[in-house]
Amino acid sequence: MALSGLDIFKLLPKTNCGDCGVPTCMAFALKLAQKKAELSECPHASEKAKATLGAASEPPIRLVKIGGPPSLEIGNETVMFRHEKTFFHPTGIAIQLLCSKEEKKLLKEIENVESYKAERVGEELNADLFFISQDSADRDSFLKTVNITKQNSTKGIILDCSDTENLKISLEVLKDDRPAIFLREKLTDEYVKLAKTSDSSLIITADSFEDLQSQSEYAKSSGLNNIILNMNSQNLGYQLQNSTILRRSALKKYFKPFGFPLFTFIQAEDSYDLLAKASLNLCKYSSIIVLPKYDKAMLYALFTLRQNIYTDPQKPIQVDPKVYQIGEPTPDSPVFVTTNFSLTYFMVSGEIENSGISAHLIIADAEGQSVLTAWAAGKFTGETIAKFIKEINLEQNVRTRKIVIPGLVAQISGDLEEKLPGWEVIVGCQEASDIPAFIKSVRIT
Amino acid sequence: MDFETPKENYSGKIIEVTIGATPEEGGTRSHTITIGGSTSPPFHFFEGKHPHPPRVAMEVFDKVPNKYPHSLMEYYRDVIEKPADMAKKCVEQYGAELISVRLEGTHPEKGNKSADEAAGIVRQILESVKVPVIITGHSHFEKINEVIKKVCEITAGENCLINYVETDNYKTIAASCIAYNHTIVAQSPIDVNLGKQLNILLTDMSFPAERIVMDPLTSTLGYGLEYTYSIMERIRNDGLAGDKMLAFPMLINPGYESAVVKEARASIEDNPDWGDQELRCAYWEIATAMSLLASGAELLIIYHPKAVEVVKNKISEIFNSKKGS
Ligand code: B12
Ligand code: SF4
What we know:
Strand content of chain B: 5-15%
Structural class of chain B: alpha/beta
Number of strands of chain A: 17
Largest sheet of chain A: 8 strands, parallel
Number of helices of chain B: 10
Strand order of the largest sheet of chain A: 10-9-8-7-6-3-12-11
Largest sheet of chain B: 8 strands, parallel
Number of helices of chain A: 17
Helix content of chain A: 40-55%
Shape of chain B: globular
Bound molecules: cobalamin, iron/sulfur cluster
Distance between the termini of chain A: 59 Å
Shape of chain A: flat
Oligomer: heterodimer
Strand order of the largest sheet of chain B: 8-7-6-5-4-3-10-9
Radius of gyration of chain A: 28 Å
Radius of gyration of chain B: 19 Å
Number of strands of chain B: 10
Distance between the termini of chain B: 21 Å
C-alpha cells in the first residue's frame, strides 16, 4: 500500500535541516513517495517513521493459509468496496463438529459435508473447513474427533479446545496439515509455543480493540505471523461495525496489528437467522465464517452469495463464444442461440439438456452480457448474430436452417432473417425454465 | 502506535422521505413511516447518525402472479385472490410495515384491467389496512400512466409511494404525484449516472426532493446481485460525499425478483444439491435482502413471511448496537 508524499511528510521531523541532501523535508518526502530515495538517508527519522514506511511495503492485510494442499487462502484484501477493484480471497465456510457426538453421528456429519457439492456457473461449491469444538469434559473425545476428521476429510481443520495438553496432542496428529487454533481466552506463552512448533495459524479473540491490538502485537513480537482476528460480539450491528473498523484500520491507516483476516462464529436462533447473519458478515469482511449447523439449501444460498460478492466487477464471468454441443447432435439437430454471459449459458444449456434432446447451442460474443443487457447495448442484434454465424461457418456444419432465439429479443427476428438468407428464425420462450415445454410444443427443426 | 477508531467525514446526508399521511395530514393512515436521514454508510453508528431504521413492506396483487412459488402459495392460498384480505394478513399476521399493491393485471397483455378497477382495488386496501401504501406498476407506459393517474386522484392526500417512473416515462406520473401529494420511486437500470439523471429531471420539474425514493433495480441472489450491490454502494458513497442528486433513500425488491427464479420453485428431487425447496425459497430472499441492506437499502419489499420476520428482526438487532461499540 503506497503512502503519499504528504503522508510521509507528516512522519518526518519537519526541521528542513538538509542532511538528507535535499533542502526540505517536504522535498525529501516526495522523493520517498516516488521511491527515488531511501528513508535511511534522513539521519533524524523517528522509529515510528521507520516502522510505518517499512510496513507500507508489505500487503496491508496478510495472506493466511489453512489446511491443504490445496490450502484455503484468506486475507490479502486491498479495498473496502468491491467496485474499487475486487475482493480477492473468498470467505472460507467452516462447519462446526461437536466432539460430544457419538462416533456414528460424527462420521455421518463429516460424510455429509464432504459429499456436498453443488455447481453454479461452472464453479464447484464446497465448504472449506471443519471447526472442531471440545464441548465435553471428556478429553479423549476431542482427540478422537480430530482423528476421525483427519481420516475422513481433506478439509482444513480449526481446533477449538481450551485444554492445552489436549491441543498439543491434536497438533501432533495434524502436524503436516496447517491447522488453525481458535482461542477463547487471552493469548498466553503456552499457546504461542504450540502455534509456533506446529506451524498453525492463531485465531485470537478479544472484547475490545485495545485488547485485540495488544494480543496481536504480542503474537507478532513472539514471531507468529499467521494471525486471524476475532472480536467477541454476537450482535450483528457490532459485528458489522467492528469488521469495518478493523479492515479500515488496516487498509487506510496501515495499522499493522489489525492487518489480518477476520473471523466470525455465528450463533443463531434458527436456520433463517443463521443465514441472515452469515450473509451480512460475508459481505462485510469476514474471511472465515463458522456455522454451528447447516442445511443444503443454506449452503447453496451462502455459496451463491459468496460467488456474487467475490466476482471481479470489471469482468463478468463469461464463456468462450463458439458452438457448444448438447448431447450428441447430428447435422440435423436443432440450433439455439444466446449470449456468452456465463449465467445465461449455463441456464440455457442446462434446460436444453433437461429436455433430453441433442442440439447445437451457439454462444455469440456479447462481451459477457445477459440477453437483454447485450441487446440494449447493441451487442446482440440480428447483425451481430448473423456475422458470428458466418464466422464460425455454421452453414457448413449443420443441415437445418432453423434457429431458435431467446424470447426476450423477439424484436430482432425480422432483422436476423434478413441478414441470414435461407434461415427461418423461431422466437423461443422468455425463460430458460420453460425450454423443455417449449421444445415439446413447437417444431424447431 | 495506539489504536484510534478510523472515522471518516461525510459532508452529505441522505434525504428523509416520509410515506403515508394521518388524518391530520389529509390521509387515513394510522401513522407515517420515514426513511433516510443517515449521515454515514449503512449501520455505521460509530461515525454518523441513522435516525430511521430500514423498513420492510410486503406485496399483494390485483391478479395472481403467473409464477408464484408453491412455497409462498402455502401461506397465502386463502387470500391470494383477495388483495385486501391478503394485505390484512400481511400486516396483522406477518408484520408488514407497509403494503405494496402490484397492479400487474392492468398490463394490456396480462389482464388489461381498467384504471377504475385498479383504483377500486387500491381503495379496498386503504380500507383494510392502516399502514402506508405503495402502488407498484409495470412497464407498459401508456397504460400505466392512465392507471396511476386515476389511482393518484382517488388516493389524494394519502401520500402513497408511487412505484415507479423511469427516464423514458416520468412526466405524467410525476405530475399526478405533485398534484395529489404522493411520493415517487425513480427507477434506473443499475447505473449511477442514469439514476442521477432521472433525479435531476424530476427535481427540474419542481418535484420535491424529499418525496423521491430511488430504485437502483434489484437483481436477486445469483442473478446479477453483485451489480445491484455495487451500484448501491457507489450511489450511497456519492450521496454521503455530498452529491445531493444521489442522496436519496433506496427501495429494493427481493420478493418479486426472487419469486421468478428457479431456486424459488425447483424441487429438491430435481436438484438434490440445492436442498429443501421451502427453506430455499425463504433463504433466497433473506440473502438478497441482507446483502442489499449492507449496501444501502432503506425500503425492502419481501414476500416470504419467514424472510420478513428474520429481516425485521435483524434490522432491530443492528439498531440495538446504536449506542456505540
Ligand atoms: C445485471 C444487469 C445489468 C448488468 C450486466 C450484467 C451482464 N453481465 O449482463 C449491468 C449493470 C452491467 C447492466 C448494464 C446495462 N443494462 Co442491464 N440489466 C441487468 C438485469 C438486472 C439482470 C440481467 C441478467 O443478468 N439476467 C439474467 C440472465 C441469465 O438473463 P438472460 O440472459 O436474459 O437469460 C434468460 C432468458 O433470456 C432465457 N434465455 C437466454 N438465452 C436464451 C436462448 C433461447 C433460445 C431461449 C429460448 C431462452 C433464452 O434464459 C435465461 C433465464 O431465464 C436486467 C433486469 C432484469 N431483472 O432482468 C437489466 C436490463 C437487462 N438492463 C437494461 C439496460 C437498459 C442496461 C443498460 C443499457 C443501461 C445502462 N446502464 O447504460 C446497460 C447496458 C450495458 C452496456 N452499456 O454495455 C434493461 C434492458 C431494457 C430493454 N428491455 O431493453 C434491463 C431489462 C433493465 C430494465 N428493466 O430497464 N445491466
Ligand atoms: S534530513 Fe530529515 S529532517 Fe533533515 S531535511 Fe531531510 S528529511 Fe528533513
